Each structure stands twice: as C-alpha cells, then as structure tokens.
Amino acid sequence: MLVKTRMTATPFTVTSATKIPEALEVMTSNGVRHLPVVDEGRVTGVISKNDIAAASPSKATTLSAQEATYLIAKLTVGKVMSRPAITIGPDTLLEEAAVLMRDEKIEILPVVADGALVGVITESDLLDAYIDILGFRDPGTRLTIEAKDEPGVLSLLTGITAKHQANISHLAVHRGQLDHSIVVVGLNTPNTAAIEEELTSAGMRILRKLVNPRHP
C-alpha cells in the first residue's frame, strides 16, 4: 500500500511568519496536533503543540499571566517549528513511512511531490491502514492461527478454506519463535466450525476467533 492511498490531501498549513496564537487556533478548530509550515510553496518545517508548549514560559516563571500571553503572542511559527522538515513521497510504501517515523520519533510526515506539499501522513493514518489490512472491522470471521513455519503450510491453509467455499479477504503472517508462525486470516463467512476442525486436524492451532456481524 502506498502513502498516497492513505494520506490526508490538502492539509491545513501555516507559514513561518504566522503568529503562534493563530497556529494554535488552526490546530484546535480543525482537531490536529501538527501543521506543515509552507513558505513560497515549499515545506520549511513542521509545528506541533509540543513545540509550542516547549517554547512557552514555564509555569514556574515570575512573569505575570499577561506578560506570558504577550510573549507568546509575539512569537512566530518560524521561531519554534521543527526544521528541516522530514518529508516523504506519495509513491512511498506505507511500511517505509512507518519505519521513518519510528526511527526519527516523529508523528507526521509532509508528503511532497515535485517540491510541493500534496498531503500529510500521520501515526493515526498508519494505524487505520493497519486495522484495514487485517480486516478487523470487516464482516466475517478472523482466525488467529499458530502453524508450523515450513514450506507448504499456507498452501494447505488456503486449500482447506477453498474446500469449504470460504473466500480469504485478508491474510497476514508473523514469524514467531522457534518453528511456528502466527497467521491471521480473514474469511467472508461467520460459519467456520468445519474449517477450524480441519485446520486443527492438519496440525494447526486456533488461538483466537473473532466474528463480526454483517453490516445492515
């Protein structure tokens, strides 16, 4: 799955000359925690609520509330934003975006094409994609199966589901410890008793079963 399929297009932005109270208002009114900073069509940084909090006078300061508010009102985004912005392209794999965000300890990546901002990808976008890939909310049955980590096991599993006229809508494999893997398979039917019985007879172990009702 590519970044462009999950990103938020045409995100809210500010410039480096935007005053901090204005940036906070944009964040609050639109329910976001980060904003790309765009100057003359180019991404020059990212501003977050954490950046603003770090630049705000400490509660232990001797400044009065009015003085603290005055100082914040004079601050511009360019003074406190994170720079340079770490960006990513729209045709990048989601996995690459996830690794980059994890390694850099950031929660948002501006998505840039031909030098221009075309969207943002966030931690929430990645979590939503993960949920969709595993089919957690889809109607049908999700089986979490422990199986031997050896050639032919997936072929055996898919053969059993096909035999019972069940369509696999989602499939994920996690290599576990020793010689076993964890397979998460989404099936388009709530009636999986016979499938489970045959999988068990084939040496697989059903660890968890989740049945989601069909949408009305």
TrEMBL record:
Source species, domain of life: Bacteria
One Pfam assignment: CBS
Residue ranges of domain ACT in the record: 142-216
Keywords in alphabetical order: CBS domain
Matches recorded under InterPro entries: ACT_dom, CBS_dom, Diverse_CBS-Domain
TM ranges: none
Domain CBS, residue spans: 7-63, 81-139
Residues forming coiled coils: none
Protein name: CBS and ACT domain-containing protein
Biological source species: Tessaracoccus palaemonis
